[in-house]
Amino acid sequence: MLEVLRSIALEVGNLLLEHFRRGTATQVVQEKGADDFTLEADRHAQEVALSLLHRHHFGGALLAEETPGGEPLPLGYTPGLLVCLDPLEGTDNFAHRVPLFGTTLAVWREGGWEAVVFYAPALGEVWEAQRGRGAFLNGKPVSHRPGRGLRLAVNQWPDMPPEVVGQALARLLPLTRNLTSTYSDALDLVWAAEGRRSGVVFLYRRAEPWDIAPALIAQEVGLRVTALDGGRWCREEGGVPVVEGGLLVAPPDLHARLLALGLGG
């Protein structure tokens, strides 16, 4: 499973890197909301990924960011196996010539995340995990090695009321003023797994599954991953993953401190 996901992520990610270096495929083809848009590169990457899934005869259905209508696209190869795809994670970074972007491919099966690969081509980093088998960076096991001080990745979604966001930030600042973001949700999550970030706080009512799937990598290295209220961070509804209630990712001791802040309002 990981071999197929990795192979596709590498090919798609390298295509994106070629566009990035040449400055091509940066035209906005769809405005989806405030600071949310689709580039030519997004669509090109998704077309290539879909073609590769068919070549590998992999997946029962595909749930992807650029799929019209947001409904799973039948693949028909592996019943019960849903592939989730973000062809270009970090679109805003890509558009602004910031090399913090990549491709996410994940598998949802039997009510949980089975596997995930995130490839950041400009960084040369391939992150992957399979449920119960640990996490890996460029083929080597990942372990959480925290640095000095407290450095939290924090991001907010447009569906979170401004007053709740303001309240959450006010509660975090006494803990640390080092609140940061790569503007790539996947990168924040995998960097937290290794300890480049102390933890992650995502403020949303509901998020897309491909954005949050890399949290499996953090979970596989022993970090605690929950919604903001300590509940499940992902559940199944109608055969697809539903991600709601925000996200807390941190080592158990820090997670308990963050949970006590009541960041969800």
Can you describe this structure?
This protein has 265 residues and is of the alpha+beta class. The chain folds into 2 domains: 140 residues, Fructose-1,6-Bisphosphatase, subunit A, domain 1 (Fructose-1,6-Bisphosphatase, Chain A, domain 1, 2-Layer Sandwich); 108 residues, D-Maltodextrin-Binding Protein, domain 2. Helices cover 31% and strands 31% of the residues. The protein contains 8 helices and 18 strands. The strands form 4 sheets. Strands 4-3-5-6-7-8-9-10 form an 8-stranded mixed beta sheet, with helices on both faces. A hairpin with a 2-residue loop joins strand 6 and strand 7. The model has no long low-confidence stretch (mean pLDDT 92). This is Myo-inositol-1(Or 4)-monophosphatase. One of its GO terms (molecular function) is inositol monophosphate 1-phosphatase activity.
Summarize the structure.
This is Myo-inositol-1(Or 4)-monophosphatase. By secondary structure, the protein is α+β, with helices and mostly antiparallel strands.
Overall average pLDDT: 92
- Which strand order does the major sheet show? 4-3-5-6-7-8-9-10
- The number of E-state strands comes to 18
Q: What global shape is seen?
A: globular
- In whole angstroms, the N-to-C terminal distance is 39 Å
What is the level-2 CATH architecture name of the largest domain?
2-Layer Sandwich
Oligomer: single chain
Percentage beta strand: 25-35%
CATH fold category name of the largest domain:
Fructose-1,6-Bisphosphatase, Chain A, domain 1
Give the name of the CATH superfamily of the largest domain. Answer: Fructose-1,6-Bisphosphatase, subunit A, domain 1
Helical content band:
25-40%
The biggest sheet, with number of strands, parallel, antiparallel or mixed sense and barrel status, is: 8 strands, mixed
CATH class of the largest domain: Alpha Beta
The DSSP helix count reads 8
H-E string? HEEHEEEHEEEEEEHEHEEHHEEEEH
Radius of gyration: 17 Å
**Structural class estimated from helices and strands:** alpha+beta
Q: What number of structural domains do the residues give?
A: 2
Would you identify the regions where 5 or more consecutive residues have pLDDT less than 50? Answer: none
GO biological process, one term: inositol metabolic process
Protein name: Myo-inositol-1(Or 4)-monophosphatase
InterPro entries: Inositol_monophosphatase-like
Organism: uncultured prokaryote
